Amino acid sequence: MDRLIYVAASGASQALDQQATIANNLANTSTAGFRAQLAAYRAVPVEREAGNDLTTRTYALTTVPTSDFTPGPVQPTGNALDVAIQGSGWIAVQAADGSEAYTRAGNLHLDANGQLVTGGGLPVIGNGGPIAVPPATQIDIANDGTISTRGAGDTPTAVAVVDKIKLVNPPAASLTRGDDGLFRAGEEAVEVDPTVRVTSGAVEGSNVNPVTAMVAMIDNARAFQMHMKVLDMAATNEQTANQLLNFSG
Protein backbone atom coordinates (compact mmCIF):
# COMPACT_ATOMS: atom_id res chain seq x y z
CA MET A 1 0.00 0.00 0.00
CA ASP A 2 2.77 2.41 0.86
CA ARG A 3 4.25 1.97 -2.64
CA LEU A 4 1.03 3.33 -4.09
CA ILE A 5 1.05 6.23 -1.65
CA TYR A 6 4.68 7.09 -2.46
CA VAL A 7 3.92 7.41 -6.16
CA ALA A 8 0.55 9.17 -5.89
CA ALA A 9 1.46 11.65 -3.15
CA SER A 10 4.77 12.64 -4.71
CA GLY A 11 3.13 12.82 -8.14
CA ALA A 12 0.48 15.21 -6.86
CA SER A 13 3.11 17.37 -5.16
CA GLN A 14 5.30 17.55 -8.24
CA ALA A 15 2.30 18.30 -10.46
CA LEU A 16 1.86 21.49 -8.46
CA ASP A 17 5.52 22.40 -9.04
CA GLN A 18 5.19 21.76 -12.76
CA GLN A 19 2.04 23.84 -12.84
CA ALA A 20 4.05 26.74 -11.42
CA THR A 21 6.57 26.38 -14.26
CA ILE A 22 3.83 26.34 -16.88
CA ALA A 23 2.14 29.34 -15.25
CA ASN A 24 5.43 31.25 -15.33
CA ASN A 25 5.80 30.52 -19.05
CA LEU A 26 2.24 31.62 -19.69
CA ALA A 27 2.77 34.83 -17.73
CA ASN A 28 5.75 35.69 -19.96
CA THR A 29 4.10 35.27 -23.35
CA SER A 30 4.54 39.03 -23.87
CA THR A 31 8.04 39.33 -22.38
CA ALA A 32 10.67 40.29 -24.97
CA GLY A 33 13.23 37.56 -25.60
CA PHE A 34 11.77 35.18 -23.01
CA ARG A 35 12.78 31.53 -23.27
CA ALA A 36 10.23 28.96 -22.11
CA GLN A 37 11.24 26.66 -19.26
CA LEU A 38 10.97 22.93 -19.90
CA ALA A 39 9.86 20.63 -17.08
CA ALA A 40 9.91 16.84 -16.94
CA TYR A 41 9.01 14.08 -14.50
CA ARG A 42 11.41 11.37 -13.45
CA ALA A 43 11.23 8.46 -11.03
CA VAL A 44 13.64 8.52 -8.08
CA PRO A 45 14.23 5.47 -5.81
CA VAL A 46 13.75 6.07 -2.10
CA GLU A 47 17.08 5.88 -0.28
CA ARG A 48 17.44 2.86 1.93
CA GLU A 49 17.26 3.53 5.64
CA ALA A 50 19.13 1.52 8.25
CA GLY A 51 17.35 -1.79 8.70
CA ASN A 52 14.65 -1.00 6.13
CA ASP A 53 14.60 -2.30 2.58
CA LEU A 54 13.00 0.45 0.47
CA THR A 55 14.41 -0.59 -2.90
CA THR A 56 10.91 -1.11 -4.33
CA ARG A 57 9.69 2.37 -3.33
CA THR A 58 10.00 5.25 -5.75
CA TYR A 59 8.66 8.77 -5.87
CA ALA A 60 8.11 11.29 -8.66
CA LEU A 61 10.31 14.33 -9.06
CA THR A 62 9.89 17.31 -11.38
CA THR A 63 13.05 18.77 -12.89
CA VAL A 64 13.65 21.80 -15.10
CA PRO A 65 16.59 20.47 -17.09
CA THR A 66 16.84 23.25 -19.63
CA SER A 67 15.01 25.95 -21.55
CA ASP A 68 13.51 26.05 -25.01
CA PHE A 69 16.02 28.01 -27.10
CA THR A 70 13.81 28.22 -30.18
CA PRO A 71 13.84 31.82 -31.47
CA GLY A 72 10.71 33.85 -30.86
CA PRO A 73 8.86 35.97 -33.43
CA VAL A 74 10.51 39.23 -34.46
CA GLN A 75 8.28 42.30 -34.36
CA PRO A 76 9.27 45.60 -36.04
CA THR A 77 9.02 48.56 -33.64
CA GLY A 78 10.52 51.47 -35.54
CA ASN A 79 12.59 52.34 -32.47
CA ALA A 80 16.24 52.80 -33.48
CA LEU A 81 17.43 51.48 -30.11
CA ASP A 82 15.56 48.18 -30.35
CA VAL A 83 17.54 45.20 -31.63
CA ALA A 84 16.62 41.59 -32.37
CA ILE A 85 19.23 38.83 -32.59
CA GLN A 86 19.34 37.14 -35.99
CA GLY A 87 19.47 33.39 -35.37
CA SER A 88 21.70 32.27 -32.50
CA GLY A 89 23.34 34.68 -30.11
CA TRP A 90 22.90 36.74 -26.95
CA ILE A 91 23.25 40.31 -25.74
CA ALA A 92 25.65 40.75 -22.82
CA VAL A 93 24.30 42.77 -19.91
CA GLN A 94 25.43 43.64 -16.40
CA ALA A 95 23.25 41.86 -13.85
CA ALA A 96 22.14 43.43 -10.58
CA ASP A 97 25.00 41.69 -8.75
CA GLY A 98 27.56 43.14 -11.17
CA SER A 99 28.20 39.88 -13.02
CA GLU A 100 27.95 39.46 -16.77
CA ALA A 101 24.81 37.74 -17.97
CA TYR A 102 23.04 37.20 -21.28
CA THR A 103 19.60 37.96 -22.64
CA ARG A 104 17.66 38.04 -25.89
CA ALA A 105 15.53 40.98 -24.75
CA GLY A 106 16.47 43.72 -27.18
CA ASN A 107 13.96 46.37 -26.10
CA LEU A 108 16.68 48.90 -25.24
CA HIS A 109 16.53 52.53 -24.18
CA LEU A 110 18.67 55.24 -22.59
CA ASP A 111 18.32 55.84 -18.86
CA ALA A 112 18.63 59.19 -17.08
CA ASN A 113 22.43 58.89 -17.09
CA GLY A 114 22.67 58.24 -20.81
CA GLN A 115 23.45 54.54 -20.38
CA LEU A 116 22.04 52.02 -22.81
CA VAL A 117 19.88 49.64 -20.75
CA THR A 118 17.38 46.85 -21.29
CA GLY A 119 13.68 47.13 -20.63
CA GLY A 120 14.43 45.92 -17.10
CA GLY A 121 17.04 48.64 -16.54
CA LEU A 122 20.14 46.45 -16.84
CA PRO A 123 23.17 48.12 -18.49
CA VAL A 124 24.16 46.73 -21.89
CA ILE A 125 27.85 45.79 -22.04
CA GLY A 126 30.12 47.11 -24.77
CA ASN A 127 33.84 46.91 -25.45
CA GLY A 128 34.81 48.42 -22.11
CA GLY A 129 31.80 47.86 -19.88
CA PRO A 130 28.37 49.52 -19.79
CA ILE A 131 27.64 51.64 -22.85
CA ALA A 132 27.09 55.40 -22.44
CA VAL A 133 25.70 57.47 -25.30
CA PRO A 134 26.19 61.26 -25.68
CA PRO A 135 22.97 63.25 -25.18
CA ALA A 136 21.04 64.98 -27.96
CA THR A 137 22.33 62.73 -30.72
CA GLN A 138 20.78 60.53 -33.34
CA ILE A 139 21.66 56.91 -32.65
CA ASP A 140 22.12 54.11 -35.17
CA ILE A 141 22.90 50.46 -34.40
CA ALA A 142 24.53 48.43 -37.18
CA ASN A 143 23.87 44.73 -37.69
CA ASP A 144 27.15 43.86 -35.95
CA GLY A 145 26.12 45.83 -32.85
CA THR A 146 28.21 48.93 -33.57
CA ILE A 147 26.61 52.06 -32.12
CA SER A 148 27.16 55.33 -33.98
CA THR A 149 25.78 58.80 -33.37
CA ARG A 150 25.28 62.07 -35.23
CA GLY A 151 24.70 65.40 -33.56
CA ALA A 152 21.91 67.76 -34.50
CA GLY A 153 22.78 69.55 -37.73
CA ASP A 154 25.67 67.22 -38.58
CA THR A 155 26.05 65.98 -42.13
CA PRO A 156 25.22 62.34 -42.89
CA THR A 157 28.94 61.58 -43.10
CA ALA A 158 29.71 63.06 -39.69
CA VAL A 159 29.26 59.78 -37.85
CA ALA A 160 30.97 59.04 -34.53
CA VAL A 161 31.32 55.45 -33.37
CA VAL A 162 30.46 55.31 -29.67
CA ASP A 163 30.79 51.64 -28.78
CA LYS A 164 29.75 48.15 -29.84
CA ILE A 165 27.23 45.90 -28.14
CA LYS A 166 28.88 42.75 -26.86
CA LEU A 167 27.27 39.88 -28.75
CA VAL A 168 28.09 36.31 -27.74
CA ASN A 169 27.04 32.84 -28.81
CA PRO A 170 27.93 30.25 -26.14
CA PRO A 171 26.74 26.64 -26.58
CA ALA A 172 23.16 26.25 -25.41
CA ALA A 173 24.18 23.31 -23.20
CA SER A 174 26.49 25.59 -21.19
CA LEU A 175 23.78 28.12 -20.34
CA THR A 176 21.89 28.11 -17.06
CA ARG A 177 18.96 30.35 -16.17
CA GLY A 178 19.29 32.36 -12.97
CA ASP A 179 16.52 33.39 -10.61
CA ASP A 180 16.64 36.82 -12.28
CA GLY A 181 15.67 35.28 -15.62
CA LEU A 182 19.11 35.93 -17.16
CA PHE A 183 21.37 33.26 -18.58
CA ARG A 184 24.97 32.60 -17.60
CA ALA A 185 27.66 30.31 -18.96
CA GLY A 186 29.74 29.50 -15.90
CA GLU A 187 31.76 31.92 -13.82
CA GLU A 188 33.87 33.29 -16.67
CA ALA A 189 32.61 35.84 -19.21
CA VAL A 190 32.03 34.54 -22.74
CA GLU A 191 34.15 35.87 -25.59
CA VAL A 192 32.62 38.05 -28.30
CA ASP A 193 31.34 36.18 -31.35
CA PRO A 194 31.85 38.39 -34.44
CA THR A 195 29.40 36.32 -36.47
CA VAL A 196 26.35 37.27 -34.38
CA ARG A 197 24.12 39.79 -36.11
CA VAL A 198 21.20 41.95 -34.99
CA THR A 199 18.29 43.65 -36.71
CA SER A 200 17.78 47.26 -35.65
CA GLY A 201 14.31 48.65 -35.09
CA ALA A 202 12.81 45.30 -34.08
CA VAL A 203 12.36 43.18 -30.96
CA GLU A 204 12.22 39.42 -30.55
CA GLY A 205 9.19 38.30 -28.63
CA SER A 206 8.70 35.39 -26.27
CA ASN A 207 8.93 31.90 -27.73
CA VAL A 208 6.07 30.70 -25.51
CA ASN A 209 3.04 29.53 -27.47
CA PRO A 210 0.06 30.56 -25.32
CA VAL A 211 -2.21 27.87 -26.76
CA THR A 212 0.34 25.13 -26.09
CA ALA A 213 0.91 26.46 -22.58
CA MET A 214 -2.82 26.51 -21.83
CA VAL A 215 -3.21 22.92 -23.05
CA ALA A 216 -0.24 21.87 -20.90
CA MET A 217 -1.79 23.60 -17.88
CA ILE A 218 -5.09 21.76 -18.37
CA ASP A 219 -3.32 18.44 -18.90
CA ASN A 220 -1.25 18.97 -15.76
CA ALA A 221 -4.34 19.84 -13.73
CA ARG A 222 -5.96 16.58 -14.84
CA ALA A 223 -2.82 14.68 -13.87
CA PHE A 224 -3.05 16.23 -10.38
CA GLN A 225 -6.68 15.14 -10.12
CA MET A 226 -5.70 11.61 -11.15
CA HIS A 227 -3.04 11.44 -8.40
CA MET A 228 -5.58 12.63 -5.82
CA LYS A 229 -8.07 9.95 -6.95
CA VAL A 230 -5.37 7.31 -6.51
CA LEU A 231 -4.80 8.56 -2.96
CA ASP A 232 -8.54 8.33 -2.30
CA MET A 233 -8.51 4.79 -3.66
CA ALA A 234 -5.58 3.89 -1.38
CA ALA A 235 -7.49 5.23 1.62
CA THR A 236 -10.60 3.24 0.63
CA ASN A 237 -8.56 0.06 0.18
CA GLU A 238 -6.98 0.55 3.59
CA GLN A 239 -10.37 0.97 5.25
CA THR A 240 -11.66 -2.17 3.52
CA ALA A 241 -8.61 -4.13 4.64
CA ASN A 242 -9.07 -2.98 8.23
CA GLN A 243 -12.70 -4.07 8.18
CA LEU A 244 -11.72 -7.52 6.89
CA LEU A 245 -9.14 -7.85 9.62
CA ASN A 246 -11.71 -6.85 12.24
CA PHE A 247 -14.17 -9.44 10.95
CA SER A 248 -11.52 -12.15 10.94
CA GLY A 249 -10.63 -11.33 14.52
From TrEMBL:
<dbReference type="InterPro" id="IPR053967">
    <property type="entry name" value="LlgE_F_G-like_D1"/>
</dbReference>
<comment type="subunit">
    <text>The basal body constitutes a major portion of the flagellar organelle and consists of five rings (E,L,P,S, and M) mounted on a central rod. The rod consists of about 26 subunits of FlgG in the distal portion, and FlgB, FlgC and FlgF are thought to build up the proximal portion of the rod with about 6 subunits each.</text>
</comment>
<keyword id="KW-0966">Cell projection</keyword>
<dbReference type="GO" id="GO:0030694">
    <property type="term" value="C:bacterial-type flagellum basal body, rod"/>
</dbReference>
<feature type="domain" description="Flagellar hook protein FlgE/F/G-like D1">
    <location>
        <begin position="84"/>
        <end position="148"/>
    </location>
</feature>
<comment type="similarity">
    <text>Belongs to the flagella basal body rod proteins family.</text>
</comment>
<dbReference type="InterPro" id="IPR037925">
    <property type="entry name" value="FlgE/F/G-like"/>
</dbReference>
<dbReference type="InterPro" id="IPR010930">
    <property type="entry name" value="Flg_bb/hook_C_dom"/>
</dbReference>
<dbReference type="GO" id="GO:0071978">
    <property type="term" value="P:bacterial-type flagellum-dependent swarming motility"/>
</dbReference>
<keyword id="KW-0975">Bacterial flagellum</keyword>
<keyword id="KW-0969">Cilium</keyword>
<protein>
    <recommendedName>
        <fullName>Flagellar basal-body rod protein FlgF</fullName>
    </recommendedName>
</protein>
<dbReference type="InterPro" id="IPR001444">
    <property type="entry name" value="Flag_bb_rod_N"/>
</dbReference>
<dbReference type="InterPro" id="IPR012836">
    <property type="entry name" value="FlgF"/>
</dbReference>
<feature type="domain" description="Flagellar basal body rod protein N-terminal">
    <location>
        <begin position="5"/>
        <end position="35"/>
    </location>
</feature>
<dbReference type="InterPro" id="IPR020013">
    <property type="entry name" value="Flagellar_FlgE/F/G"/>
</dbReference>
<dbReference type="Pfam" id="PF22692">
    <property type="entry name" value="LlgE_F_G_D1"/>
</dbReference>
<keyword id="KW-0282">Flagellum</keyword>
<dbReference type="InterPro" id="IPR019776">
    <property type="entry name" value="Flagellar_basal_body_rod_CS"/>
</dbReference>
<dbReference type="Pfam" id="PF06429">
    <property type="entry name" value="Flg_bbr_C"/>
</dbReference>
<feature type="domain" description="Flagellar basal-body/hook protein C-terminal">
    <location>
        <begin position="200"/>
        <end position="244"/>
    </location>
</feature>
<dbReference type="Pfam" id="PF00460">
    <property type="entry name" value="Flg_bb_rod"/>
</dbReference>
